[in-house]
Structures are given as structure tokens and as C-alpha cells.
Amino acid sequence: MPVRYRIILLFTLVVFFILGIVCGSIYYFTSTSRSKMMRSRLTNRAITTSRLLRQSEVFDRHLVRRIDSSMSISLKSKAVQAYNEENKRVYSYMDRWQDSIHSTNELLNEAREKGSVYFREGDKEGVAYYTAMPGNDLVIISAAVDEDGKRNLSSLKQLLITSFILGILISFAGGYIFSARLLRPVKKITEEVTDIYAYNLARRIQEGNTKDEWYKLSKTLNDLLDRLNQSFEMQRRFISNASHELSTPLTLISSQLEVSLQRTRTDEEYRKVMQDVVNDVHYMNNLVQTLLKFATASGNPGGLNIDLIRIDEVLMRIPASIQKQDTSFSVSLQFNNLPEDEDKLLVFGNEELLFTAFRNIVVNACKYSPDHHAEVVLTVSPDLFTIAVIDKGPGIPDSEVENIFQPFYRMEETRSVGGFGLGLSLASRIMKLHKGEINVESVSNTGTTFVLQLPVAGKL
């Protein structure tokens, strides 16, 4: 069922129940009030008749009947009967001839026990009222038809039913109009989103000025489009740069082999060509391995092998690995605030990926430091591991800090230094994958500090 019809149905049902409760309550309390009023009037008449009958020296029964007949009250088919302690009728009055109240001994006895009993007989309502006087106990039965009250109650019933039906119809029409206006922004957003494709992700949805739910939805979709646009742009740049980096060594290999095959050469010349080809193949292999790691770091964390690992043990692998890559590189480690409990040195993550991230940062520090030395400082706090990688290189200009984590990005001043431009980008992806952060603090001609932060296991 479309949302619009569900809103209309829900709105109508809510109004249905509210009107039903209100109209039912009005009718119930009005009916109850009429019954109480009728009982009070019948009881007062019974009391009046009882008092007149007890004054027999002043009011005889014929006079009481004349008084009853002359009493003007808005009740029809009035009837009054009096019974003594032997349940014998001692007095009766009826508006209509041969109209009487059917009284039973059970009713009379019940009136003597309770003092007053309300009952119905046909369309009449009656009260059996007991008055006790020494030697002159009477049970007065007063009954009548409340035609005006019932007529008013019937009119009220018709009015409430009419109001109920009109209210439902009005609520249905109001729900129809209300839902159309409510869902109009959704329809507009849907139409705008439908017109957005991969080639025009720069287009955005109009958010409007009202800070309502539709504004939040539009803003959320625009934020999503921003992220998608950035991802597509990053993908395009990555594919373009990767293609360029891979095509360069392939072109060199192809050209060297073609040149070497143009004429017969000496063994030494063939050996030199083969060595150059091997170097290019190693370059391509390293680039492919780096791209594979980059793809792994860009994937879903659920697809990685996540374990509890000690952060200090990962860092202690770095100096030997750096020395193996280049004997001129050196690394010093410094651990601050190490806890006695080894469990407080644990972090959730993939050991090889974290090692790759730390190693890439340290390799960069060694490359650009004049003495090829990097300092690694681990600081442990209850909730966070902070790893600072410090070098004494030329520094990074403020305008370049935001770009250094882009894939294949290299500053003009560093293009002469070997590398693919993927190290920092790969490290950034790995840190994000582990809910961590990388911040850069750099001073020109003084050095750069990369600050890596990771949450302690159990503090995610």
C-alpha cells in the first residue's frame, strides 16, 4: 500500500476512535444524567405523596388525588400507588384510566430493606420509596414516562451519529489533502535523485530553508552524493595514476627488448639489458604488491583477519625491517607509560596491515631526514595508543598537508626520491580501517611529526 494511503487510513482511524470515544461518552453521560434526574423527580413525588397521606386529618385520599392530578410536571402517564405494611394498596392515582403499576411483594419488601428501589416497567420508569412511621409504614410507588427526556436523548443520538459520520468524512478529506502536502517534498526529492547519474554527481538536491525532517533528508542525501563524488573522483585518479605507473615500466621493458633484438649484441650488452628488465620487473612487482595492499586496506573490515595484537611488538619489528630495506636507515624506539598489565597493550586489528602502516610512515621519515633517522615514540593512555613518528626533514608546506594522503600524490620537491606515492595513502586507509587517526605536525626546515592514534582493545 502506498505511503499516502497509509497516512490517510491511519489519520482516519485515529479520528474514528477519537470521535467514537467523544460521542459515546457524551451519549452515555447524558443518558445517565437523565436517568438520575428522572429517579430524583419520581422520588420527590413519592415523598410528597407520602407526607400528604400521613396527614389524613387534613388531606383525605380524594384530596390527595386532586392534588396529584393538578401537579404540573413534564412527565406522561403518571401513576402513584401506596401500600401499607401488609402490602395492601391504600392509595392509587393514574393519569390514564385503568393504568396501573404492576407491583410484587418482592419489590415492596426490597424497598423496605433498601429504602428506595429503581425499576422499569415497559416504557415507564418507577421508584418504590419506603417511609417508616410508628404504626404507619408506607411504600410509595411512583412511575411515569419521560417522553421529553427520551425525545431529547434520541435527538442527541441522531446529532452525534451525524457529527460522527461528517467528522469521519472530513478527516478522510483532510488526510487526503494533508498527505499530499506532506509527501510533496518526498516526490520532489525522488524526481531530483532520479535525474542524478554517475556522470553528473555534482548536482545537488534543493534543501530549502525550513529545518524540518525533509531538510535533514535532503542534507543527508547531499552528503552521500558528496562522498560518492569524492569516491568516484578518487577512483578515476587512482586508475589513471595506476595505469600510468604500470605502463611506464612496461614501455621501458618493451623498448629495451626491441632495441636489443635489432642486431646481434655481446653477452655483456645482453646481460645489461636483462638486468635493466629485471629491475623494471621488480619495480612493477613492488607496485602490484602495494596496490594489492591498498585494495585490502580499502575493503570491508569484516573480510579481514582481526585479532588481539600487542602494539609494542608490532613496533619492535620495524627497525629490523627498515635496516633490511636500506642499511643507511635507522630507527629509535621510545615507549612511555607502559602499563604492567600486558592486556592494556592490546589492540584489535590485522597485524600485517598495522605493521605496513607504521612501516610506511617510518620509511618516509627516514627517506627525507638528512641523517636517514626516524624516532618512534609510543605513549599509552587508558583509552588510546599514540604513536609519534618524528623526522628532521625539510617539512611539509601547509598547503600540501591535505593532499599528501591522496593516492599517487607526490610533492614536486620529492619527485626525485624513489617511491610510488602510495605509502601515506595506504597508511591512512589502514588507520581508518582500525578506527584510528593520522595527524600531521610539520615545521619548515625543522622536521615533521606524524601522530597516529589507535583505540585500546575494548574501548572502541
UniProtKB/TrEMBL annotation:
Signal peptide: none
UniProt EC number: 2.7.13.3
Spans traversing the lipid bilayer: 6-29, 159-178
NAD among keywords: no
Pfam families given in the database record: HATPase_c, HisKA
Catalysed transformations (reactions): ATP + protein L-histidine = ADP + protein N-phospho-L-histidine
Name of the protein in question: histidine kinase
Organism: Terrimonas ginsenosidimutans
